[in-house]
Amino acid sequence: MPTRRRAVLILAVLAGLALLSIALALSVGSIHIPLSDVFRALVGSDAGMGIDVVRSLRLPRALGGFACGALLALAGALLQVLLRNPLADPYVLGISGGAGVGAMLAILFGLTAAGINGLAFLGALAAMLLVFGLAHGDGGWTQTRLLLTGVIVASGCGAIVALTLSVAPEQKLHGMLFWLMGDLAQGGDPTLPLLALVVILLVALPFARELNLLARGADTALTLGVAITRLRRGVYLVASLATAIVVTYAGSIGFIGLIVPHLVRLSLGNDQRLLLPAAALAGGSLLVVADTLARTVVAPQQLPVGVLTALIGVPVFLYLLARAPLARR
C-alpha cells in the first residue's frame, strides 16, 4: 500500500500526463500547430485555419478519446473486482459483440450515423440484459457463471458479425471493418462520453470501501455488512453502460480495460479509492496517444486506433505475464 504522499504524487503525474497527451494531440498532425497557437486557440477568440483545426477537429476528438479510454479503464477495473479475475476486461461479457451486431446491421441497411449509434447502443444493452439474465438463471448469480455466459454470448455475436460481413456489399465493407477495429474519426461531439465519465466516477467512488471488501472475497464482504447482490448488480450495470457508450462512440477498442488496471495496480495497490481515478487518467492518456499515432504514422491515411492499442497492449501484457504470473496477484 503506497503512502499518501506517494499516492498523491502518482495521481499528479498521471494528471500531468493526461494534459500532455491532449496537448500533443492538439499540436501534432498533418498540419503542425505550435503549442503557443494551441493555447491561443483554447483561450482566445482569434480566427485562422490552424485555430479552426484545433477547435473544430482535434479538440473534440482528443476529449472524446480521453473519455473513451478512461471509461474502458474504469470498466476493466470494476469488472476485475466483480469477477475477481485479472483477465476480465470490458469486452469479455459480450457488450462489444452486441454493439457490433447493431452497428453492422445499421451500416448494412444504409442508416445514418445517428442510426448506427442508436442500434449499436441498443445492441450493447440487449447483450448486457441477455448475459445478466442467463447468468442469473435458477441457480443464482456467480462470477464463473457470468464470465462463461459472457464468453458464449460474445462468440454468438461474433458469428452474427462475421455473417453480416460475408453478405455485405463491397462498398460498405471498409466502413464496417474500421468500426470493428475502433475509429475515433467519426465520434463527433464528445459530450456524452465525458458526461458518462464524470457520472460513473461520482457513482463508483463512494462505494470504494465496499469494492475493496468485495475484492477480498464475497464471504468476507458479506461478513462485514456489504450488500453483495446489490453491489454486484450495480458494478455490472455501471461497467456495461460504460462499455456500451464507448463502443457506440468509437467502435471496438481492446486491451485498455485489461492492461491499464494492471499497470496502475502495480504502482498504487488495490485500493479502489486510488485505483479508479488513476485508471481513468492512465486509460484516457493511453487512448489519446494511440489515436495521435493512428493519425500521424502513415499520414495522410489513418489507422484504426484499435489496431494501435492492440500493438501496444500485447507486448505490455506479455511483459506483465512474464514478470509475475497473474494468478499470484
Automatic annotation (TrEMBL):
Lipid bilayer topology: Multi-pass membrane protein
Compartmental location: Cell membrane
Superkingdom field: Bacteria
InterPro entries: ABC_BtuC-like, ABC_transptr_permease_BtuC
Any GO molecular function: transmembrane transporter activity
Keywords: Cell membrane, Membrane, Transmembrane, Transmembrane helix, Transport
GO CC list: plasma membrane
Pfam families assigned to the protein according to its UniProt record, in alphabetical order: FecCD
Membrane-crossing segments per the record: 62-83, 90-109, 115-134, 146-168, 188-208, 235-262, 274-293, 305-322
Keyword set includes Transport: yes
Protein family: Belongs to the binding-protein-dependent transport system permease family. FecCD subfamily.
The protein's name: Iron chelate uptake ABC transporter family permease subunit
Source organism: Rhodocyclus tenuis (Rhodospirillum tenue)
